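Action item from last week, closing it out:
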Amino acid sequence: MTDPAPTSSPDPTPTPAPAHFANYQNEIYLHGLEDRVPPFTTDGTALGASARAHLDAGAFGYLAGSAGSGATHRANREAFDRHRLVPRMLTDATHRDLRTTVLGTPMPAPVLLAPLGVQSIVHPDAEPATARAAASLGLTMTLSTASSHTLEDVAEAGDDSGADGAGASRWFQLYWPNDDEVCASILGRARRAGYTTLVVTLDTWTLAWRPQDLDRAYLPFIRGVGTAIPFSDPAFRAGLAKPPEEDLAAAVLRWVPMFTGTDRSWDRLPFLREHWDGPIVLKGIQHPDDARRAADAGMDGIVVSNHGGRQVDGAMASLDALPAAVRALEGTGVEVLFDSGIRTGADVLKALALGARAVLVGRPFAYGLAHGGEDGVRHVLRSLLADLDLTLGLTGHRTPDELTPDDLHLR
C-alpha cells in the first residue's frame, strides 16, 4: 500500500528564525573583559560629530548639510523628541521577533538602507562596502542612481555577502532622467541585476539652496563623481561623441541637466509602470492629497520623507506628516514607509507606532562608512538594530506589529 500524497508541498525556502539583534550589546560588554571597546560611538545621535574628523570639509558638508537655514533638519529631530514612548509592563516581551515583509520583500527587521549617493566621497570602498555590510545582516539596501559604482557591481557585492549565504535583497532608487530611452535602459539594467522594488524620488528634481555646499562650490556630479550608472549605460553613451573615459566634461554636461532641473506631472507615472514590472514606491510624499494621488495612480507604496531636510527649508517634519498620510491610504493596500531623521531604535519605534510599515535610515550608515568602510557600516547598523530590539521589549512589545499610536504621548 502506498503512502497517501502529502496535502501540501514543503516550503523550499523556510523563513529564517528571528534574529537576536540585542546580542550585540552582550558582545560589546564581553569584549570589555579584554579591554576592547567599540571602534567608535554606539550613540546614533553622536555619529555625525564623530565622523567629521574622518572627512574633508566638502564631503562632510555635502553629507551633513541641509537646505537653507537647516530648519527642516532640526524639525525632524524635534518631532521625534515631542513624541514620547509609553512603556507597558509584564507583557511577556522576553522573546521578540522583528521580522516583517515590505512590498513582498522579507526583512529581518523593519529597517532598510535609504538611497544615498556619491558614497565614494565618504570612503573609497563606497557603495559596495555598504552593500556587503547590509547583506551580511540580511537588510535591504536601496541603491541611488547617483552611485559611485555601477548597479551591477553593487549587486554583485551584496550577493557575495548575503546573510547565511543567501543573495541580498535590493531596491533601486531612481532620479528620473528626462531622456526616456536612458531612463528605460537604466530600469532594465536594474531589473536584470535583481533589484526588486523601484523607489522614485520626487522631491529632488532640482537641487535646493544648500549653503554648506554653495560656500565651497562643492558639487560632486560636475566632477564626474556619483555618475557611474549613467556613464556605464549604453543608451546614455550612445548620445555622446566620445565615451566619458575620453571626454569627461561632455558626459557631465549631458548628464547633469538630464537628471536635474525638470519637474514632472502625475500623468507621467504610467511610463514607469510600462518599464518596471515590480513594486513602485514614490519617495518624498508629505501631503495626504499626494498620498491619495499615489494610490489613484496605482503605486504600491510611498515614503513619507522631506529628504532629511535637504530640499525645502522650513518644511514640516516628516514624522508630523506621517499620521495624515497613513490615514489617507487606509484600505488602499498602499504601504507607507518613512525616512528623515532616524537615529535611534526609539525613533524607529515611534515611526512604526504612527503607522509606518518600515523606516529607511541614511546619514547614520554613511557616518559609519566614513569611520571604517564596511565594518563601520556594519557597526552602525548592528547598534541601531540592537537598540531597536531592546527598546521594543522594554516598552512591552514582542513584534513591531503590536505598536499603535496609543504607545506614544505627544508633549
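Closing note: The first helix runs from residue 23 to 32.
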